[in-house]
Design a protein that fits this description.
Among the domains are: 1-30; 35-112, Immunoglobulin-like (Sandwich), CATH 2.60.40; 268-344. The chain has 345 residues and is of the alpha+beta class. It has helices spanning 2-27, 209-212, 268-314, 319-328, 334-344, and strands at residues 35-39, 47-52, 63-68, 71-77, 83-86, 92-99, 106-112, 122-132, 136-138, 141-143, 148-157.
């Protein structure tokens, strides 16, 4: 029994050591480093993120997650040129995470500020030609005037935004250069991409969060997900968005640590308690069976001794002599009384 227990412990130790070794190798694997450059971190302007990998080659299919105040505001993957674009609509610090198999996960901060640009539009150009003619009269000789031309160019610069409360896209007004006249979500030939609950008619569905959800009961993974359209995309379904909601369903878009429903059971942590329970149960069972066997053996010997005493009593042996013999052999003298009872009953 002891040899079997020792062999079980050795086998479990080897399995645990191999499992630990495999996990250790995965965690210590060498990874490459990504090179990240940011271009144009301006409010309501397209910000370009470019990622380079080995030998400064563009790195495609890098998973990009962008957070603003711990809330994910943009996500996607880099294209074949290693480029990912997004348009920040709030000032402040954005946090970007870049992940790709075989590379270290990179985290950087993007400081989005207001970038001032000056736009001058020439709406009309007027050219005036002034002609001056000089005439000289000489007797017997007439000389025609020699024209002298002076050219003057007058340029009129007219402001685009007149702040009259009317959005005039034909004059060039839009939400970017004239927000006083053109509110967000207005048709002004400019996609403002501001999340204000209004779908900008100048935006394609891909670029305005307010245009994603059409509430038709179908989850269109190209545009909709649980984050921007919970009515169409239920929690726990594949929609390229990790919702992390504890609903008894493992979200296929989440990693195990991101969704409590995806956490795998660590069976190794249950091995030792199970072994201890089995050992304690086995020991108790063994000692119980051993005591039962000893009790039965004692009862058998007592029955044999009682039968022996009964035979001696039938042969006329003095009970006092038998009692002294029992005491001398360290046996219970009450066995003689039991023998006498059995003999006469």
């Amino acid at each position: 029994m002891t040899k079997k227990l020792v062999s079980i412990f050795i086998t479990l130790f080897i399995i645990f050591a191999l499992a630990s070794g495999i996990e250790g190798r995965d965690e210590r694997g060498d990874r490459d480093t990504m090179s990240i450059t940011i271009g144009g971190a301006c409010l309501n302007n397209v910000t370009t993120i470019r990622i380079l990998g080995k030998r400064d080659k563009p790195l495609g299919d890098v998973e990009i997650d962008i957070f603003y105040k711990n809330r994910k505001v943009a996500y996607g993957k880099t294209d074949n040129m290693g480029i990912f674009k997004f348009t920040p609509n709030k000032l402040g610090i954005y946090r970007m995470e870049a992940k790709k198999s075989g590379y270290n996960t990179e985290e950087i901060e993007i400081n989005v500020s207001i970038c001032v640009t000056t736009t001058t539009t020439i709406t009309s150009t007027t050219t005036t030609i002034l002609a001056v003619t000089t005439t000289t009269i000489i007797p017997t000789t007439t000389t025609k005037t020699l024209p002298t031309t002076i050219r003057k160019t007058t340029t009129t610069i007219k402001k685009i935004c007149n702040r009259d409360g009317v959005c005039e896209p034909r004059r060039g007004e839009n939400h970017r250069n004239c927000p006083q006249d053109c509110p967000s979500g207005y048709r002004d030939n400019y996609c403002d991409r501001i999340k204000d609950g209004k779908c900008d008619p100048d935006c394609s569905r891909r670029y305005d969060d307010d245009c994603f959800c059409n509430n038709d009961g179908r989850c269109e993974e190209e545009f909709e997900n649980y984050g921007n359209c919970p009515r169409d995309c239920k929690s726990g379904r594949k929609d390229n968005y990790c919702d992390g909601v504890k609903d008894g369903r493992c979200d296929p878009d989440c990693k195990p640590e991101e969704d409590p429903d995806c956490k795998k059971v660590d069976y190794l942590s249950y091995i030792y308690p199970i072994i201890i329970v089995f050992l304690v149960f086995g020991a108790l069972t063994y000692y119980s069976m051993k005591r039962e066997m000893e009790r039965r053996e004692m009862e058998r010997k007592e029955e044999e001794l009682i039968d022996y005493l009964k035979e001696r009593l039938r042969e006329g042996e003095d009970p006092d002599v038998l009692k002294k013999e029992l005491i001398a052999n360290g046996q219970d003298p009450e066995l003689l009384e039991r023998a006498e009872r059995y003999l006469w009953t």
